[in-house]
Design a protein that fits this description.
Subcellular location: Membrane
GO molecular function: solute:inorganic anion antiporter activity
Organism: Deinandra increscens subsp. villosa
Radius of gyration: 26 Å
Number of helices: 27
Pfam families: HCO3_cotransp
Keywords: Membrane, Transmembrane, Transmembrane helix
Strand order of the largest sheet: 1-2
Distance between the termini: 39 Å
Amino acid sequence: MTYPFRGIVGDVRGRVSCYKQDWIDGIKPGIRILAPTMYIFFASALPVIAFGAQLSRDTDGRLSTVETLASTAICGIIHSIVGGQPLMIVGVAEPTIIMYTYLYDFAKDRQDLGPRLFLAWAGWVCIWTALLLFLMAIFNACDIISRFTRIAGETFGMLISILFIQEAIKGLVSEFYIPKSEDPNLVKYQFQWLYTNGLLAVIFSFGLLYTALRSRNARSWLYGAGWLRSFIADYGVPMMVVVWTALSFWVPNKAPSGVPRRLYSPLLWDYESLYHWTVIKDMGEVPLVYIMAAFVPGVMIAALYFFDHSVASQLAQQKEFNLKKPSAYHYDIFLLGFMTLVCGLIGLPPANGVLPQSPMHTKSLAVLEQQFIKKKMMESVNESIEQEASVSEIYKQMQKVFMDIEKSPITDVIIKELKDLEDAIMSVEDGHVTTKEKFDPEKYIDAYLPVRVNEQRVSNFLQSILLAASICAMPIIKLIPTSVLWGYFAYMAIDSLPGNQFWERVLLLFVPQRQRYKFLEKYHTSFIVTVSYRTIVIFTVFQIVYFLLCLGVTWIPIAGVLFPVLFFILIVIRQYIFPKIFLPYYLSELDAADFEEIEDGSLQPLLQ
C-alpha cells in the first residue's frame, strides 16, 4: 500500500524479459501445439455456450451465447497477447451470469431504466468495477495471494468442480421438464416425447462422459498403433463431442423437431445480437442516481473478480508444475480492469480467469512437454542399448538429455528432482543392456519424469481465435444437443481432480492400512510416509467440513456470490490457528506456505 505501482512495475519487468521466448516456445512444437489448443478450446467454448443460453433465459434475450462467446474471445485475445500469465484462461463464468441476472431483475422493474437501459446501466457497473480493479492493482492488493496456500486453492478448485457437477445434474434433470417460457402444448412437450428426450439426454451425457474419460487415457491402451493412441489421447475429447452430436441425428424420423433438445442462440447478424455493440450511446440516458447506485454491484463484482482471477492464475501455476517464468498477479488484475471496462462499453458481460480451465490448460501443456522430453530420452536410450551400455551409462545419457532441454547446468535442485527416476532406473540389475525387453525405461519415464510445462502464449491465442470464429459458426454449434454439454460439464469436473491433494487425501480415508502402499505407488503421495496418519485425517476432515460450508453458502440466493469471504477467513485460520495445532513439519508437508519457516519455537502444537 505504501508503494503504489510497485507490483505492476515488477510484474511488467519480469514478463517483458521472457515475452519473446513466450512466442518462440509456442511455435517450437509445431503442429503438436494444436493438441492443447483444441483441448482447451472445447473446455472454454462449451461452458460459455451453456452459460450464454442460461443468460438468454434470465435476461429475456437481451444477452445470449453470441455475447458470452464474443466477450470470451475478445478478452482471450487481449490476455494471450499482452497478459502477464498466458497459461491462465479467461472466460465468462457463472458468477458473471448470476450478477448480470441480478442487474437485469433490478433494472427491468425500474421505470427510469427498464429492459432498454439494462445494458447501459450494466456499462456503468463495469466502469465502477474497472476503477476498483485499477485501484487494487495499483496499491498492490495482490500481495495477499502469497497467503493463499494449498488448502485454500485446492478447496476452491474442488468447489468449482462440484459446482460443475451440480450444473450437469441440474441440466440433465431439466431435460425431463418443459423449459421456462415455452408453450406446453407443443408436440415435443407431450409426456411421451418429453420422457424420450430425457432418456436420450441420459444416454448422450453419460456416453460423452465415459468416452471422453477413456480417450484421455488412450496412451496406456494395449491396442492400436502408438501414433493412433497418441492421436486419440490428444484429440479424443473434441472428437467425442462431434461423435455424440452425430449420433443424436440417428433418432427416428417420427420424433418431433426438438427431440433431442439442442442449443438455442440468435445468430451473429440478428438484431438482438447487434444492439449491444452501440450501447455506449445510451449510457448518457441513465439517471445520475442509478449511475451512483451502480457502485454497489460494482464493489461486489470487483471483489468477486479479484478473487476468481487471482486464484485461477495461482492454480494455473501451482508449485507442482515447476514453472520457470515469473507470475504477474498485480499486472493481470490491472489488465482485467481494462478488459472489464471495454466489455461494459460495448455491452458484453465481462470475462475473467476461470476454473477449472486454467489448470487444465497448464496440465495439457505439461503433457505436451513430457511427450517431447520422453521422445528425446528414448532416442538416447535406444542408441545406448545398441552400444550395449550399462544401466548407469544409460541414466547418465538420459540426465544429459534432460539438462540439454532445460538449458541448465546440473544443480542440486535438478538432481533432487531426478532422484526418483534415477532410483527406478538403477534398481534394474546393472550390467550391459542388449535388448529393450530386458530393460524398458519408458515405464519409469512415464512414472518419475519431473513435471515440465511448455510456458507459451500460442495455445491461448489460437483457442481465443477459434472462439471468435465459432461466433460465425453458430448455425453449426446449434446442432449440439444440450445433453452433450451436461456430459462435458461432468467430464471437466472429473478431469480436474487428479493432482488435487485434497481429493487424494479424501480417497486415502477409505483405504485400509495394508493397502496404503498401493495408494502411494499410484498417486506418488509422499505425505503418506512423512506425515502421521492421525494428522492427515484431522487435517482432511477439517477441510471437508469447511468445503461443505463453502458449498452451502453458494446455495444462498444473492448472498451466495459472497462465498470468497470464507476463503479469506480460511487464510486467517491457516496463518494463525493451524501452527498452534499441527507440527510445523507436518503442516509444511500438507500445506506449505511461503510466509513461514519451519523452526523450533517455544509454541507446542496440539498434535505431536
